[in-house]
């Protein structure tokens, strides 16, 4: 009837089509407007940051290096103008040393994204492995792994992050891998709970009855049924890492000069907030955009993987 809205599953029934679980997840995800907008924004920021100034030996289309200073023009004000659109020589302005602030901000965005996605991937792997082993084998193995997890949980995360940031000595990759050590605890508990439930299901009992090995049961039969929890947790870990890295760099325990990150830029130019606010606002806005985009993306993935969701079709 006109004006009637049906859920994705109801429309599938009416069309008499058969869809796999993966197709159902994709349909729910692509119909989540917030997630789609966030995905486009996140991809745009990432591609823009890495193509503008280049990365490693790959050159970018913006030719002003972030480490080269010069004469400060017009008080370092941004030349970017929205209407009529004008890009100019220094769209984000210049810092006190005459460095192009657009190059600095893109470099900071690169470093923050590298840390965030590395921590998200590594911590997800650690948390998934520990949670799956503890949930499946139980007994003294579960007790040992969960007590180690509790130990990391009771110590304040920012304290551990500060210690690891100091140990990294400003290196981007050591910082990323050390921060991964504190980001896996929540996922380990979630995966353990899922595995404890799934290991009692009939398909696991059947696999054990025909002599299937423990590793194959865990990785082939159990973990695929927890993929929704794992992916959502990974996206939330990326969002939180962006904020943790920014906080550490702001406090001087993260990325250090001559390299830079978004948090370090905010820390360096925090005193310029009154007379040159663009030095503070550009990195701050990018941090906000990345964190919000990843969080909304996580919401969309959660809704897509949760079979109890009954979102209406657009």
TrEMBL record:
GO terms for cellular component: plasma membrane. It is a multi-pass membrane protein. InterPro entries: BP-dependent_transpt_permease (IPR050366), MetI-like (IPR000515), MetI-like_sf (IPR035906), OppC_N (IPR025966). The chain crosses the membrane at residues 36-58, 113-137, 144-165, 171-191, 222-244, 279-298. It comes from the Bacteria. Keywords: Cell membrane, Membrane, Transmembrane, Transmembrane helix, Transport. Residues 109-298 form the ABC transmembrane type-1 domain. One of its GO terms (biological process) is transmembrane transport. PROSITE patterns: ABC_TM1. The keyword Transport applies. Pfam families: BPD_transp_1, OppC_N. It is found in: Cell membrane. PANTHER family: D,D-DIPEPTIDE TRANSPORT SYSTEM PERMEASE PROTEIN DDPC-RELATED, OLIGOPEPTIDE TRANSPORT SYSTEM PERMEASE PROTEIN APPC. Belongs to the binding-protein-dependent transport system permease family. This is ABC transporter permease.
């Amino acid at each position: 009837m006109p004006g009637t809205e049906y859920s994705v599953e109801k429309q599938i029934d009416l069309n008499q089509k058969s869809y796999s679980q993966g197709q159902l997840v994709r349909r729910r995800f692509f119909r989540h407007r917030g997630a789609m907008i966030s995905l486009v924004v996140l991809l745009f920021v990432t591609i823009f940051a890495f193509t503008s100034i280049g990365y490693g030996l790959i050159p970018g289309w913006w030719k002003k290096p972030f480490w080269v200073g010069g004469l400060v023009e017009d008080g370092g004000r941004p030349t970017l103008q929205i209407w009529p659109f004008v890009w100019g020589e220094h769209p984000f302005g210049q810092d006190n040393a005459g460095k192009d602030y657009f190059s600095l901000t893109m470099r900071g965005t690169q470093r923050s994204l590298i840390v965030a996605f590395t921590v998200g991937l590594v911590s997800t792997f650690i948390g998934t492995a520990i949670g799956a082993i503890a949930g499946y084998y139980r007994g003294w193995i579960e007790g040992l792994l969960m007590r180690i997890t509790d130990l990391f949980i009771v110590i304040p995360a920012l304290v551990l992050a500060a210690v690891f940031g100091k140990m990294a000595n400003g290196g981007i990759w050591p910082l990323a891998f050390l921060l991964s050590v504190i980001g896996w605890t929540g996922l380990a508990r979630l995966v353990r709970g899922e595995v404890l439930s799934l290991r009692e299901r009939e398909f696991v009992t059947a696999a054990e009855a025909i002599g299937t090995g423990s590793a194959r049961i865990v990785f082939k039969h159990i973990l695929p049924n927890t993929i929704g929890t794992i992916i959502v947790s990974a996206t939330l870990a990326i969002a939180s890492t962006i904020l943790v890295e920014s906080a550490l760099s702001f406090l001087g325990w993260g990325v250090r000069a001559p390299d830079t990150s978004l948090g370090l830029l905010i820390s360096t130019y925090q005193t310029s907030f009154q007379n040159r606010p663009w030095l503070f606002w550009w990195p701050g806005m990018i941090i906000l955009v990345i964190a919000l985009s990843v969080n909304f993306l996580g919401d969309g993935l959660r809704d897509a993987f949760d079979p109890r969701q009954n979102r209406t079709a657009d």
